[in-house]
């Protein structure tokens, strides 16, 4: 099994039998080694280290099954627990089928919200997670995420934008090593509202939020018309673009870096990355999926994580 370059040793939290069956079905030379987290580095050169779940998992590639939900949830919980106690350095999650989990009673909108709950502090506080999609060419943050488009204007407040900007600036400094991060904010409306003639939100909400961030010493600028923010020359002027809604952020980065984009959750007390794609049930188990985004997620987790740990 070839070692993924530029990553630390990593291990998978899973049912070893499922991974062995997948390797056999595909004819892949991918031996599986059940390990403890502390044994992963020693096994990594010759096999895929796997920290076994407490229960077996029933899974058929390409066939969503609510019976597998408990294993998915347990894997996420285990990975976070191992990272929070220092037995792993970061969490790299694979795509989950949210509708399958919801059918089994999962109450969170998605991965990010569940991870925030698992990061609850000793005082009971839950951190506010911020989703950033990162690539070498472009990094974007949607200020509002998984809500209907018609709900965006009401959800978009000065406080929400300012809090998002603070979290982004802090994590870019502390984890990405950017001393003075440059944040470019997109307008909500076409042409960033045309001074209120195409909607008042940019004038009344986005502009005051930018002023607050700048008053705190954060290099924030905008609002810019979203249709001119993402060409190559414009991208040289900022480190991250803050978009006002989901597709405004994800369409450009998936156009520019579909196979290299990494989902990074900012605002958590641990590093979490994930491939920026979905479950692709239509090609699952056929051995034709591209691994680029997962490899990019592993590399970025290795780059961001504290020294001395394994990635899970």
Describe, in plain words, how this protein is organized in 3D.
With 312 residues, the protein is α/β, with parallel strands linked by helices. The protein folds into two domains: 1-129 and 269-312, Isopropylmalate Dehydrogenase; 137-256, Isopropylmalate Dehydrogenase (3-Layer(aba) Sandwich), CATH 3.40.718. Helices cover 35% and strands 15% of the residues. The chain contains eleven helices and eleven strands. It has helices at 16-26, 40-43, 69-84, 98-103, 111-118, 152-155, 158-174, 201-215, 232-235, 246-256, 292-304, and strands at 12-14, 32-34, 48-52, 90-92, 130-134, 139-142, 182-186, 219-224, 240-243, 262-266, 271-275. The strands form two sheets. The protein has an eight-stranded mixed sheet, with helices on both faces. A three-stranded parallel sheet has the order 1-3-2. α8 (201-215) links the parallel β7 and β8. α7 packs across α8 (201-215). The protein is elongated. The two termini are 18 Å apart. The model is unreliable at 1-5 (pLDDT under 50).
